Amino acid sequence: MNLLQLAWKNISGNELRSWVVALCALLVAAFALFATLLLRGAATSLELAAERLGADIIVVPEGAQTEMEGALLMGVPAHFWMPEENVAKLAAITGVEAVSPQIYLATLQDASCCTVSEMFMVAYDPQTDFTVRPWLDRQLPGGLGLGEVIGGDYIFATEANDGILVYGDLVRLKGNLEPTGTGLDQTLFFTMDTAHRLAVVSEMRAVEPLNIPPNQVSAVLLQTKPGVDTEELAVEIYRTVPGVYPIQSANLFQSSRTQLKSLLSTVVIVMALIWPLAVVLIGMIYLMAANERRRELGVLRALGATRRFVAQSLLAEASVLAFCGALVGVFLAVLAIYLFRRLIMVSLGVPFLLPAAGPLALQIGIGLLLSMASVFLAALAPAIKISRQDPAIAMRE
């Protein structure tokens, strides 16, 4: 009989003990992987969203900072305006290399003239844009024409010929941007000419017209010249252009970053409680099991089994239980993240992007190793103790 056969026989011989050990391994692996995926997925999502915007500073109307972050992070439709003349004022400030205005719109809620209810929409200026254009240069060298749109990762066509009905007008979906795990994934992007066409068509075909105030924009994205201090430039913008608030890219999504730090602290505290308790509980279970099996192990020693073989048999049993429990744990963690990621995003107020296959496999492997190491560590002391006892004494007890 080899080690694995002996370990499996011991596992099946005491189902209650085996279930408790496997459950402890499951909890350690599931919580560790769930927390790691959530935190890393949220951090990656914030980084990708900031990169997608591609701006050093975003200028919005004063008081619209929170609404701006909600739109970009969670796809919540935003409505705010400032004079278009601010674009020229910002471009004239020393240290500014490029500026590009954007208009933020939304489809109507539950209206027959719109395919999707309350979808966030961004209209950009193709002549000055530096956020959408890099993707277009790679995928659509000709850019977007009138009535053509691109969407985030979650946007899909619902009408014939890749069409999406917006304010009674059928626009054509030309492609999808890479996923970010933020509200940008459920956002529709098109040129300002298309936005104004939608406004005209909506007067005749939509339940409510699309209102775009003349000579108004929602935000202005800025790129700074090399070597310019963005903090000093932001102060200068706030001082010279009234009624606006500049947001540095490093400070973008600051509330979500704070929320993420708080979540990290909570996870560390919970893990600091769960892991030692699981190790102690497993250690006590194996200590009790070793005491119960003294006679059995004494017989093994009398039949010629070495101390090393006895210790290895107990550790093999622990390893099998740890692997089985951890495997179920990581499966449940990944399944929960995949099925409920939207609910998690809304509940915690943070974006989330599920890692690619490679990083995901690595994190799953780390979760398995952590759980197996915990069980192995807990069973090590009882295994060594029982292997050292005298076989004759153990058989008489």
Describe the structure.
It contains twelve helices and eleven strands. A hairpin with a 2-residue loop joins strand 6 (163-166) and strand 7. It has two domains: 3-47 and 257-396, no CATH class; 63-242, no CATH class. The longest helix is centred in the last third of the chain and has 42 residues, at 307-348. The chain is α+β, with helices and mostly antiparallel strands and 397 residues long. The protein has a nine-stranded mixed sheet, with helices on both faces. Helices cover 57% and strands 14% of the residues. The radius of gyration is 30 Å and the shape is elongated.
SSE diagram, text form:
Elements: H1 3-13, H2 15-53, E1 57-61, H3 65-74, E2 82-83, H4 85-91, E3 96-106, E4 120-124, H5 133-139, E5 148-151, E6 163-166, E7 169-176, E8 187-191, H6 192-205, E9 216-217, E10 219-224, H7 230-240, E11 244-248, H8 254-292, H9 294-302, H10 307-348, H11 357-387, H12 391-396
Parallel strand pairs: 4-8, 5-7
Antiparallel strand pairs: 1-10, 1-11, 2-9, 3-4, 3-10, 5-8, 6-7
Helix pairs in contact: 1-10, 2-8, 2-10, 2-11, 8-11, 10-11
Are there runs of 5+ residues with pLDDT below 50, and where? none
> Biggest sheet, open or closed, and with what strands and sense?
9 strands, mixed
The count of β-strands is 11
Gap between N and C termini = 25 Å
Q: Provide a count of the helices.
A: 12
Q: How are the strands of the biggest sheet laid out side by side? A: 6-7-5-8-4-3-10-1-11
- Assign a percent range to the helix content: 55-70%
The global form is elongated
The arrangement of helices and strands along the chain is HHEHEHEEHEEEEHEEHEHHHHH
What is the number of domains? 2
Classify the secondary structure makeup into a structural class.
alpha+beta
Mean pLDDT across the residues is: 78
Radius of gyration: 30 Å
- The share of residues in extended strands comes to 5-15%
